[in-house]
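Could someone model iron/sulfur cluster with this protein?
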Amino acid sequence: MLFRTAADDRPYHLGPFPLETLPRDEGVAGEESRSSPVENSAPQPQGVLGRAARIYRDLYASLAEGEPAAKRAPIPDDPARRAVDIKGYAYFMNASQVGICRDGDEYAVVVLVEAERVPEPGNPARGWVEPAVGEVIDMRAAEIAVCLARHIRQLGFPARAHVAGNGKLDCERLAVLAGLAVRDGTALKNPFIEGRFALAAVTTSYELPVDKPLAREALKAKGLRYWLGINGAMSGRERNRRAKRATHLSRYPMEQVKRVERPTTLVLDDEVPRVPKRASFFDRALRGDLGEKAQAERNRFAFKQPHTAGMMAPMRSMVPLQGGNPSPQKAFLGDAAANSRAIKSLSYFLGADLTGICEIPAYAWYSHGQDGQEIRPYHKYAVVMLIDQEYDTMEGASGDDWISGAQSMRGYLRGAEIAGVMAETIRGLGHPARSQTNVDSDVLHIPLLLLAGLGELSRIGELVLNPFVGPRFKSVVLTTNLPLEPDRPIDFGLQYFCSHCTKCARECPCDAIPWGGKIMFNGYEMWKPDVERCARYRLTNSKGSACGRCMKTCPLNKVVTADGPLLTRIASWCGVNAMWLKPLLVPIAVKLDDWIGNGKRNPAKKWWLDLEIVDGACVVPKGVNQRDLDLSHKIDPAKQNMAVYPASMMPVPNDNSPQAVDRKAALAALAMMESPLQAKERKARGGPKPLHYVPTPPKAGAEAGKKPELANYGGVR
Ligand code: SF4
Ligand code: SF4
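Reply:
Sure, complex below.
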């Protein structure tokens, strides 16, 4: 209870609700076979949000069917182990409940998605959300079913997703047979969910163990054990706590965190250079700047593993929907404060975990796009949203094994969906808006995360850390001219914490995180990581896909809700509300975190099958990273070689041809960097900005390049 809870031992594939405790009745199957099937139809979408969600649901529906991979994956013979992977994946994608039943000769995996809360009366978002609840949860259920079907097809088995309006399959009957609902007259009731929910299903020949239908008494399931979360499922107490918070607030008490006028790390607004997209190391790898091996691996990076491969097609299909013209009929909205409340409530209704708002400084816009064209800033405000990468799966993983890439892609896909639907809604109300996603963004997310008050810069480097979800998130941004009220940056003492903690540096598999102090880089005070080394490791990791080990092992990667361990909740409260205690508590917290063993893998949370995709088919990978903690690893900061590529060493923004990195020069460049104190002193005496802050200019007269496309990887379509 102090350090651990029953949730730590709950097998992941059981999901957040204690379905396994419910009474079952096999006789229900006979009754169901006598009732006439209900067509899986969908009414016309209502309102501006309903129409936006329908566009995205249709996008998922278009990917419901396809050919399986040519070769079967080396999957376990035991259907129960297969079900751990299949149910685990659906829960990983945030299904509220999952069950399996027979559908004729096939198996049906049924997913149930609970609706989030409708905004309160007086909140402008209520008018958008109320008529669109069904449409939005249908979209969410479709997302999960389509990704799951694609995953099964990548394993080499036929699978089809059945989403609202796209088939004759009776999802209500399947939900009863799979033990997710009880028929009560014409209504379908769930033992734990009183509000609305949506259903979708995947039918497949992939053999899986089936669940039994629920007995009628299951509807009386909410006993003391449920309220206390005794069986490790989410407690009724935590569900109640969330339900009591205003809908424009996240589930975390961000309102308790100290607000400040400026980010807690120095940012020289007038000196930060605008940088081209071409300078991102993943982009550089794609164009060959990091050599042939990194280029080849970059092409298959997102298609290297079957859970990730399931998400890529929907994510890429969303890119053309990111922007567009606003409706000519401008709807009158409230003042900036009311608009901000409404936009935040909408983001939480759609599934964001934390949302903040800021004005966009010029330097947060990329200077040039992937096609080499200059980008001119076009919107005033950024709505910045965090998608939690999910604590439990991270607990089961080493951080750089075969699920790591899927954790990132899930965050990117969900973010693209949420921001895309929001942008479509705002445009439908007559205001300009564009979603800025991982696949296509004209803005840099990090400065916006700082300004929108969602976190502080951490030792991990170019990564913002939030007081409640730690570094465990992906971000997505929506830019708009809709008048909004910005939030302010936050200070929860992270600079002190990271100054006295080096766990991420110790646990990084390639020593890309600095052990020493902060420097000034392109106008930002930061612990500057060796981004090239990190990118190469993530791209060429042969015993896993990608890496997020620094996030996984950070002491601030925790559960701080009512279901988290008592000590974590107390420490989190003190970290936010009693910052004066930090000099006393931080050294203890850092030692205690290792002593408890935080950051080791938790086998109860390992649900996925370790598989690699090679030439379009799944194979057993050559190895699996199985790291726990490495307490003895230490590097003398003075001897740690770190390469930095300031603006002056970035590639020509409009030249597509390979521009090889000069690592030797980048290692030497570290000596040119000022300390934060030196930068302040220079500014005080009116000294000029360093020459290395000046970006490599575009090539005169060069034709705008073509945005590079990923090579065909040969997997499922
Ligand atoms: Fe190191 Fe992995 Fe974090 Fe990169 S992502 S800094 S390689 S731990
Ligand atoms: Fe900061 Fe420690 Fe987390 Fe690294 S592991 S980001 S040093 S708190």
